[in-house]
Specification:
- By secondary structure, the protein is of the alpha/beta class.
- 35% of the residues lie in helices and 21% in strands.
- It is built from eleven helices and ten strands.
- The protein has a six-stranded mixed beta sheet, with helices on both faces. The protein has a four-stranded antiparallel beta sheet with strand order 2-1-4-5, with helices on one face.
- A hairpin with a 2-residue loop joins strand 9 (230-235) and strand 10 (238-243).
- Helix 4 (118-129) crosses helix 5, helix 4 runs parallel beside helix 6 and helix 7 (193-210) packs parallel to helix 8.
- The radius of gyration is 21 Å and the shape is globular.
Length: 285
């Protein structure tokens, strides 16, 4: 079976929702760590059900911080994070746990349990979060592995599979509980072109089949623009640009052009602020 080909028979057909009627919204959020540096400054983002929404930008611009805020791992100093009717920013422990049960997370590089088989990695959230019997868990695990093309690898250990396969196992684990929201932290990092393309298409197919909301934090423009419905670009703690891939590709904004084309010169400086060469080395012109 091709990756994802049987999913639509197992789940409802996709129903999309516009960003004006969001399933998840980040409203006027400001966040800084203990050092006082503002990571996010009054940002607003909206995510519709059934959509793949990308968050892009340079390193250290707050992309992964946004995922932590959505998951309630950290709390903003200002603003609201509304997920399916719950304000994650102010939720108590029980409400936060209920919200997290509707979330799936694909960590950078997969983060599989190395002492567990592929099967047991995918079964882990089912054992922890449900009271399903072993027969039900077996069927669900094999179904999820089949969706990512790895049912035949169920008995292998993570050390026996490639990096691309490990990422697909991690994806099967992330969707084990049929989450309403799936977050991907740099899902294409370290993958070869073939694995990258497979992973990108799996993200799109699984989002459609599960009617989920998918958030991709990434630097990879080509793969992301192939599957994303909407893109936010973050720079210096703010939303520097947003729009569909087509709109951003056509943009003449200097930051957008620099990021998408990988240009060394532009609003994002190559040199970190420093004294002039003359001041540093005592050179006289």
């Amino acid at each position: 079976m091709n990756a994802g080909s049987g999913l639509c028979a197992l789940f409802f057909q996709p129903v999309t929702m516009s960003l004006s009627d969001p399933f998840l919204s980040i409203e006027d959020v400001t966040f800084s760590y203990g050092n006082g540096r503002v990571i996010l400054n009054d940002v607003t983002l909206r995510f519709g059900r059934g959509q793949v929404v990308a968050i892009m930008g340079g390193s250290g611009m707050g992309k992964t911080t946004l995922l932590k805020l959505i998951g309630g791992l950290i709390r903003p100093q200002k603003g609201r994070i509304l997920f399916d009717g719950t304000d994650v920013a102010t939720a108590d422990t029980q409400a936060l746990y209920r919200a997290r049960r509707k979330m799936g997370m694909l960590f950078q590089f997969g983060a599989l349990f190395t002492d567990m088989s592929v099967f047991e990695n995918v079964a882990f959230p089912l054992r922890e979060q449900t009271d399903f019997d072993e027969e039900m868990i077996r069927d669900l695990v094999l179904m999820k592995l089949d969706a990512v093309g790895l049912r035949g690898a169920a008995d292998l250990m993570p050390s026996a599979i490639s990096g691309g396969m490990a990422r697909r196992v991690a994806l099967a684990r992330a969707i084990a509980l049929d989450p309403a929201l799936i977050m991907y932290d740099e899902p294409f990092a370290g993958l070869d072109p073939i694995s990258m393309g497979i992973t990108a298409q799996l993200i799109r197919k699984l989002t459609d089949a599960l009617q989920a909301t998918a958030i991709i934090v990434t630097h990879d423009v080509a793969e992301t623009f192939e599957i994303a419905d909407y893109v936010y670009m973050v720079n210096a703690g703010r939303i520097a640009a947003q729009g569909t891939p087509e709109e951003l590709t056509a943009s003449t904004d200097p930051y957008v052009c620099q990021f998408l084309k990988g240009l060394p010169d532009g609003p994002v400086a190559f040199h970190y602020p420093a004294k002039s060469v003359e001041e540093e080395f005592g050179v006289r012109s």
